[in-house]
Amino acid sequence: MSILITNIKSLLQVRENCPSFISGNDMKTLPTIENAYLLIENDTIVNYGPMEDASSIEAETTIDATGKFVLPTWCDSHTHIVYAGNRELEFVDRINGLTYEEIANRGGGILNSAKTLQNTSEEELYNQSIARVKTVMKLGTGALEIKSGYGLTPEAELKMLRVIKRIKKEFPVKVRATFLGAHALPQHYKNNKQGYLDEIINVMLPLIEKEQLADYIDIFCEKGYFDLDDTKQIIEAGKKHHMASKIHVNQFNAFGGVALAVENNALSVDHLEEMNDEDIEVLKGSNTMPVALPSCSYFLSIPYTPARKMIDAGLPLALATDYNPGSTPSGNMNFVVSTACIKMKMTPEEAINAATINGAYAMGIDKQYGSITRGKKANVIITKQIPSYYYLPYSFGENNIETVIINGQIIA
Ligand SMILES: N=CN[C@@H](CCC(=O)O)C(=O)O
Ligand SMILES: [Zn+2]
User: Fold this and answer.
1) Pairing mode, strands 61-64 and 2-12
2) How far is it, in rounded angstroms, from Cα 316 to Cα 403?
3) How far is ligand 1, taken at its centre, from the CA of residue 236, in Å?
4) Closest Cα to atom 8 of ligand 1
5) How confident is the model over 331-356, as a mean pLDDT?
6) Which CATH number fits domain 75-362: 3.30.420.40, 3.30.1330.30, 3.20.20.140, 3.90.960.10?
7) So what's the pLDDT on residue 9?
8) 387 Cβ partners below 8 Å, 6+ apart?
9) Contact 51/372 with Cβ under 8 angstroms?
10) Which of 50, 146, 300, 330 is the most exposed, having the fewest neighbouring CB atoms within 10 Å of its CB?
11) Stated pTM of the model
């Protein structure tokens, strides 16, 4: 199967030799080819260039992209898209004055979702989750990291991870799985946090490795959830089972979690709504990708990750949705890119770099995803006719996507 896209107004994020990620000042550059073509064969980008070089190329399907832009699909490196039910009652509780923390302390929040998930069959969980996966694919997401963490028992965590594995197998979207057993302390371990950590380390992790259910490990490093010592235990246990770490950290409080993650070579540190100078300093020159989740800040009315300060200090930054029932019931990367520009003062170029190649790095797939590069996977968005690519973040809430191609398959 071959697809030739012709007359592309501008082909975005074209990188012959794509670096693993883009940092600091370089994030301001988005390499493009004007009036371009793109050739896909099966699941791979095989060629591209200016239209005048395309005259002799033939393909089974040709798409005329006159007036339209083509760019890599979004790489959403932080989601909890596999969950059961919703939490719209808590949403109304928050409107009426309760805080996220107060809701969690009453047994709502993550524990509420865990209860629902424990009582949901694997088949039903799969069906609820794939409805969301189909939606985000149509919104231009071609790669998804998906976390467990709403199970909180060996049985329910494995149920979540098996659903993720099935999505990985049955959908063209690229999926990476992260084990987040340490998302919250379950009720039955209320006064025995070490007991739960031991269960994660000695019971869950060996089972997960045996069934090859997770690529990465995660923990919610936050006051009232898990502290630095707990985080160290989880990162080290992950290493023993060949899982690099991606850490929820600095969502509400900054207390050294970023430094701990960097020292331990974490692949990413995610949230970062609260950042002090030391956090920025330790990230410099490291291989750990900072990941901002602006939809979460929007939905919870908490600070936005200080993107400007971080990028101006020379750091890279990735953008992701955090799609989950409690803090971000949305998996729309277009909204994330808009919000990053509007609220975090990222330029459109910075936001697109953050949502493509840097997102790919934050989920360990930068060799095959995140840019228009010969040999990379054929994952592209074709926009509607729009005046410029600035229009993508500018027209927030509007759907500017006409066609999505994932793994060489036309999705929408
Ligand atoms: N912060 C921790 N975990 C999720 C939200 C969990 C929930 O409220 O269900 C997050 O990334 O925002
Ligand atoms: Zn999260």
Assistant:
1) parallel
2) 29
3) 23
4) 326
5) 98
6) 3.20.20.140
7) 98
8) none
9) no
10) 50
11) 0.98
